[in-house]
Design a protein that fits this description.
mainly alpha
Length: 95
């Protein structure tokens, strides 16, 4: 893993553990995509961090958490997309 990825992960995790919603959301993205040195995608870790960020009202985390849930229960996908469109959040996951 390149040093910059290890350092980025260290700082994002530190901020996330201190309750920073943006960092929690970003860490969830890293785990969902398997990027920034976290290894292969880990959905459970992504959900854990998005849940924490969503509890702080972070819109992207709420949307991504909804999309992750929709992958398990596809019938709610239209609701997730409707919420995302009206909240004007960035779609961070591709289906």
């Amino acid at each position: 893993m390149p040093q910059s990825d290890a350092l980025a992960l260290k700082w994002w995790r530190s901020a996330a553990e201190q309750g920073d919603a943006q960092a929690q959301s970003k860490l969830g993205l890293f785990y969902a995509q398997g990027s920034k040195g976290v290894g292969p995608p880990l959905d459970a870790e992504a959900v854990k961090w998005w849940h924490k960020a969503a509890a702080h009202g972070h819109a992207n985390a709420q949307f991504n958490l909804g999309l992750m849930i929709a992958q398990v229960c596809p019938s709610i996908l239209p609701v997730c997309m409707h919420i995302g469109k009206h909240a004007q959040v960035d779609v961070l996951l591709t289906l």
